[in-house]
Design brief:
CATH architecture of the largest domain: Sandwich
Mean pLDDT: 82
Largest sheet: 8 strands, antiparallel
Number of strands: 13
Structural class: mainly beta
Distance between the termini: 34 Å
Strand content: 25-35%
Helix content: 10-25%
Number of domains: 2
Order of helices and strands: EHEEHEEEEEEEEHEHEH
Low-confidence stretches: 84-91, 248-257, 271-282
CATH topology of the largest domain: Immunoglobulin-like
Shape: elongated
CATH superfamily of the largest domain: Superoxide dismutase, copper/zinc binding domain
Bound molecules: zinc ion
């Protein structure tokens, strides 16, 4: 999906020499959706200004045989906010992340970035889905004590009916549908004018089993939930680092390196053993 307006993505990429940097540059330069690029071998950092999803950019970088970890996401323009004498840096407007998990093998990472007062970018990848459309909503409560059932209803501070993301009559949490491909992966990049990062931190994000009818169906639940079926996976929306705010190379919590970190669940059984692997040479 291409929402047109580019954002900056900051990746850590395993690069030890100039020729590695060259191959990373070649993999990205001139590709559709890639607007500008900066590669720094010393810090193993690649900064890409692009209208692609972070998963698409990561795939291009990794086509060189190198591993990449998304470290930050930021806007590509200075913003004007009413009442501020000078434009604040974009990171001041807020970034958040939700790690989705469910009872099955569904796992996802969805990032929120406030680009301006009116534009919130939502960039995500969810794996393990049935191919097809799945409703995606911000729910009121950041409560997973009964898994996704305790997340409350769609976030609806203005008492409106359920709708689609482009409607005026909608819940603020109504993000419409994301579409999973044949391999079960939904990779998406949306922009929303109603949702604000500062309003949704501490709430939850839920992906549903079925398609959201955007309030246009004949089912009694249509104007309430979009009749998108059971809640498949959910996660709490937490504040996260913006661009250049995450100097982390090694996770301080358990000694897992950045590269191992990427292939590990953030919690649960796969997390516990921080064993050395040949790929970890930071
Ligand atoms: Zn709704």
């Amino acid at each position: 999906m291409d929402s047109g307006r580019p954002t900056k993505l900051e990746f850590s990429v395993q690069m030890s020499c100039e020729s590695c940097a060259r191959s990373v540059r070649e993999a990205l330069e001139g590709k559709p959706g890639v607007k500008s690029l900066s590669v720094d071998v010393g810090t193993e950092q690649v900064l890409v200004e692009s209208s692609l999803t972070s998963a698409e950019v990561q795939k291009l970088i990794e086509s060189t045989g190198r591993r990449a970890v998304l470290k930050g996401i930021g806007g590509s323009e200075r913003v004007k906010v009413k009442g501020h004498p000078s434009p604040p840096s974009l990171s001041d407007l807020g970034a958040a992340v939700a790690m989705l998990s469910g009872s099955g093998s569904i796992q996802g990472v969805v990032r929120f970035l406030q680009l301006s007062e009116e534009r919130c970018l939502i960039d995500g990848t969810v794996d393990g889905l049935k191919p097809g459309a799945h409703g995606l909503h911000v729910h009121t409560l950041g409560d997973l004590t009964q898994d996704c059932l305790s997340c409350g209803e769609h976030y609806n501070p203005f008492g409106k009916s359920h709708g689609g993301p482009a409607d005026t009559e909608r819940h603020v949490g109504d993000l419409g549908n994301v579409v999973a491909a044949e391999d079960g992966r939904a990779s998406f990049r949306l922009e929303d004018s109603q949702l604000k990062v500062w309003d949704v931190i501490g709430r939850s994000l839920v992906i549903d089993a079925g398609e959201d009818d955007l309030g246009r169906g004949s089912h009694p639940l249509s104007k309430h939930t979009g009749n998108s079926g059971e809640r498949l996976a959910c996660g709490i929306i937490a504040r996260s680092a913006g661009l250049f705010q995450n100097p982390k190379q090694v996770c301080a919590c358990d000694g897992v390196t950045l590269w191992e970190e990427r292939d590990r669940p953030i919690a649960g059984p796969g997390r516990s053993k921080a064993t050395e692997t040949p790929s970890a040479h930071l």
